Amino acid sequence: MREDLLHYIWKYRKLQVSNVYTSTNEPIRIMEVGAHNLLAGPDFFNAKIVIGEQLWAGTVEIHVKSSDWYAHHHEQDPNYNNVILHVVWEDDVNVYRKDNTIIPTLVLKNYISQEVLDTYLELFQQNGGKFINCGHAIENVSQLIWRNWLERLYFERLENKWLLVSHLLLESKNDWEKVFFIMLAKGFGLKINGDAFYEIAKQCDFSMIRKIQNDTLRLESAFFGLAGFLSQDIQGDDYYNSLKKEFEFLSTKFLISESQVQKPQFFRLRPSNFPTIRLSQLANLYFVQRNIFSKILAAKSIEELYRLFAVSASPYWDRHYTFGKESGSSPKKLSKKFMDLLIINTVLPIKIGYSKHFGEDIGEEIIQIMSGVKAENNSVISNFKSLKVSFPSALESQAVLQLYNDYCVKNKCLQCVVGHGLLNGKA
After folding, report:
1. What top-level branch of life does the organism fall under (predicted)?
2. In terms of pLDDT, which residue wins out, 174 or 122?
C-alpha cells in the first residue's frame, strides 16, 4: 500500500460514506475533507468531521500505519497538535495527544471498494519493464484534458528553470541584464560547456560588457581571455595576436584575468559546437543586438526571436574552428535548432520570470511562441511517440519531459491526469 493512494481516496471521497466508524467504534460523518497540503505539516487543512455527536474542525493526517506518526516524530511537532482524525490503512498502535487523549483513527481498508484497489494495483502492475505505468491507456485520454494538462506541465517546467535565475537575481541585486547575459552564456555552452561558460560569465563584470559592446574584437578578447584561450604563442596569426593584445589591455583597465574554473572542452563536441565558435557568436550577438534584453522582452513571436539571434561568428571563424588551424570555408551562423534551445532554456524562462516579477501575465504569449518551436527529439520523446502521443511543437515535448521526470519516474501517477482518469474509469 502507498500513502499517495490513501491521499487520493480521502481527497476524492473514494471511500464508503455511510456507516463509517473510528477504530474505537464511534460513528464518523465527513462534512469537509479539507484542503490538500503539499508542503510540510498535516496532510489536509480545514477539515470538518462529526465524530460521535461532536463537530470537529482542524487538520487530518494520513499514514499507511498508525505507528508512522511516531516514526515521523509528529508527537514532537506542534503543527500536529490540532489533528482531529488520523486516517490510516493499518491501525497498529494508539496515537495520543499531549493531554494523553487518543486521536480518533479511521482505518481506510475497511471502507474501500475492491474495484478501486484493483484499478490501482493494475496501474502499477502494468509496468513490468515497460516505459511508463499507464502506457496501455495514455492514448485514450481526452484531448481537451490532455492539452490542458500539458500546458500546466510546461509552466511547471518553466518554474523549475526559473530557480537558478531567481538565485542570480538575488546575487546581482536585480540586475536583469547581467542575469540574462549569464544565463545566455550558459545556453551557448550547451550541456558540455554550459557550466564553464556560466562561471566565465559570472566572473565577467557586466559593466565592462556595456562599455566595450561597440567593439567586436574587444568583446571576443574578453570572452576568449577569460576562457583561457589566449595564453599560447601563435606566430603569424594576426587575429589571435590582436585578441591577445586587447585582452592584456582589458586586464589592466578592468582588472580581469583568466578564469580559474575548468576551461571549456572540445572533446566529444561537433566542430560547430566548439567553444571558440560559440564564444565568438555570443560576442557578435552582443555587438549586433545592443540592448538585447529589452528586445527579448519586447519580442512577441518566434519569428522576432529568430531575427534577434540571426548572427554569425566573426569572419576569421569562416575558415577556422580553433586558433591557428585553417579549415574549409563555411560561415558559422547560429542554426535554427540552436536558436530553439536558447529560446526554450533561456529566453522564455527569463521572459515569464520578468513578467511575474512585475505582476504581468504573458502565459498566452509564451504558449504562442512555444507552439512555433519544433519539438525536440530524444529517447524519452521517442518512447512517448511509440505510445501514440503526438508532438506538434516544443510545448508538448517540454511538457512531456516534465511529466516523465517529475511524475512517471517517481510513480506520482495519482497526481497526473492520466492516473487520476484511470482510477475514475475515464481513461
Report:
1. Bacteria
2. 174
Query: Pairing state of beta strands 105-107 and 320-322?
Result: unpaired
Q: Which three cell numbers stand for residue 197?
A: 561558460
Q: Does the predicted TM-score (pTM) go above 0.85?
A: no
Q: What is d(CA 7, CA 220) in angstroms, rounded to the nearest whole number?
A: 56
Catalogue the E-assigned strands of 281-423: 320-322, 325-326
Report the candidate in 313, 227, 237, 314 with the shortest Cα–Cα distance to residue 273: 313
Alpha helices of 30-137 — where are they, by DSSP H? Answer: 68-71, 114-125
pLDDT tens for 174-186 read 999 999 999 999 9
How confident is the model over 161-181, as a mean pLDDT? 92
Whole-angstrom distance, CA of residue 153 vs CA of residue 366: 13
Pairwise CA distance, residues 22 & 107, whole Å = 7
3 state SS of 52 = coil
Question: Of 309, 283, 281, nearest to 296 (Cα)?
Answer: 309
Nearest-angstrom CA–CA distance, 279 and 80:
55
Domain ranges for the chain = 3-112, 114-174+374-427, 175-344
313-361 pLDDT, tens digit per residue, is 999 999 999 999 999 999 999 999 999 999 999 999 999 999 999 999 9
Handedness of CA 36, 111, 133, 63 (dihedral sign): positive
| Cα–Cα distance list, 194 to 36, 134, 422 (Å) | 39, 35, 41
250, amino acid identity = L
